[in-house]
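Hi all, long-time lurker, first post. I run a small reading group and we've been trying to get comfortable going from sequence to structure in the token notation. Rather than ask abstract questions, I figured I'd post a concrete chain and ask someone more experienced to write out its structure so we can walk through it together at our next meeting. Sequence below, copied exactly:
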Amino acid sequence: MSGVRRGGRPVVEVGAQIRFSGAQWQVVAFSRQGFHLVGEDGADQVVLAGHLFADPGFTVVGAEQMQAVPQWGLFETAPVAAREKALAWQRHIREVESGLPGGADSGGVVRAEYDPGRWTLAEREQAKAAELTALGFGRVSRSTVQRMRLAYRKQGLWGLVDQRTARRPKGGDGNAGGRQDERVVAAVKEVLRGQRGRSKGTVKGLMPLVAQLLKDRHGGTVAMPAQATFYRLVNQLAHPADHPARRVRNAPLTDDGRKFTPTRALRPGEQVQIDTTRLDVLALYGDGSAGRPELTIAVDVATRAILAAVLRPGGTQAVDAALLLAEMAVPHPARPTWPDVLHFAHSTVLPAERLSSLDERLHKAAARPVVVPETVVVDRGKVYLSKAFTGACETLGISVQAAPPFAPTAKSIVERTFGSLNTLLWQHLPGYTGSDVTRRGHDVAREARYNIAQLQQFLDEWLVLYHHRPHQGLRHPLLPKVVLSPNEMWAALVCVTGYVPVPLSRNDYVELLPVRWQAITEHGIRLHHRTYDHDLLGPSRGQDSGVAARGGKWEVHTNPHDVRQIWVRLPGLGLTEIPWIHRDHAHQPFNDRIWQYLQTLTPRHTGHDRYEADLAEALDQLMRRAHAGGATAREEYLLARQTTARTPLPAPGDEGGAQDAEQGAAAMEGEEDSLDGLDQDAEEAAEDDEAWGTPAVPVAGYGLYDAQEEADKW
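-- Answer (accepted) --
Happy to help. Here is the structure in token form:
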């Protein structure tokens, strides 16, 4: 058998032909974390999965080329018209390949002329060419449709953008002014910078300012360009927010037209519903106050399993939602304080012996299902419609299905699960607020007892019991009268549909972080009075990135929850980690809200370097005060409610890791036998709790239940 694609990712299975170390091999068996390979010359070897997938020449023979991680930062540099046309082409290309504009799993009726069962790919391309010509796309031939389809397969959405709109300016030297005199270009840029923060006038009003500046500097030896040329030059050099005659508008959200499908699924991961709500339990924060954190869960429709459940102090962002997707496909580590009956290896319901031989991570995992989603159903919140979340889904081959507006029943299963959590778990905890104000006690805040870390630990343990509890919505396909638990349903279905997906790399994760555009100066990259610098920026200092739509600035990815480092896309190096120059002052993650608070306490100085050093010292003092218990109420509030998201470790040998390169390499060295670095992240959660002043509390039911007694009922 050759490698097949499921959910957009290649699959390595017994019988698949692969290329590894410059030769072609056939997979003949799995052995724990290893693949048993046989070559064309009869040679055989056993290769660890992590070593196999990390090989630069690894491919699955017969599988279509994987689409690259969407480069949303680059896609945004194209004009609006070019982006809209690319999105239109995307639906037509999907219809040619699968018969449906939304993709193979989008649902709907296949039009007769695009039925893959009746027509060849070439015939469907010819039909699409005729349709596009009739729709006004110009004279479209079959070869054009084929070229666009191959470009989409190779480069994703960026391949469908008209590359003429993304070309660098004339001259080829990265000068955004094209053939204009460099002195004129420098004068226009300086005048535009001087107008920032002032009331905007017209482009014509800039001409005398530029002319005067040229006269003062060059004594009338540099001629002003013609008015039309000057207008084009300003349009090319000015940032949209600085352009005198252009209003700043947000790009309108477009509806992709996908229809909602019924909540029926026959295999794990076929449809997963995700939603976020305020928890109906008050949590204690570090400043002594109580509040309702946000709970985000993902529920599998086929098994009713809660694949991921994460508590955040508040303000769930798109990065958090993207990490939720990765958590679903990774075994959940069991905490050392849990009884053995809650471990995957000791489960009598799950096929522990069979699956543990394929994935060694399951030996120390909790007795919960592990599912790779095919389709996720979300509401229309900006977190789930953001490019970070949709880009993560496209990378993992997950189809995103937005629920219709004002239709809570479209996600009925996840909404009902929130109710089940209230009745089965939260109402038994002190600080329960009830489902509405009419059901709330008189002094609930005084009853609150647990912080967010303790509630998360409690939830993780209780979810193991939940997956062993019979669910009235689950029935065995052959025994419809028998009520099954989520674990029993998953065990019945995973033996038929289970597979081993190719894991994502660290660079894929960084690609999904939020994007901004910054200049690289002789000091490095300055962002909110923070300077990020490293020797790798040397060749790019003061240089133009070549992206004219962004004024020659460089693509920068940031983690909103941890601003101690950024990632810059450098020529020949890709996304490279650049640390904050005062990172030694920050022994734990911090966000921009804490940084803005420090700016209100620190006196401003004329020198940027001195002011930044004072801010770094203030940050260090704040962390020390908080650790010693001497922080103010405002400081405790900010520290208690900041949300942390793990920053990916630098790859071994990656100099872009700067100060953390050696530590990152050492940490990655211990992960070579694992398919995903998220395993180690989960095991280090207790250490992070201690670093934040919230020591890990042994979880054993908190006196509400006995795990061993519950296990006797399974």
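A couple of things your group might point at:
The first strand starts at residue 5 and ends at 6.
Residues 297 and 309 are 4 Å apart (CA to CA).
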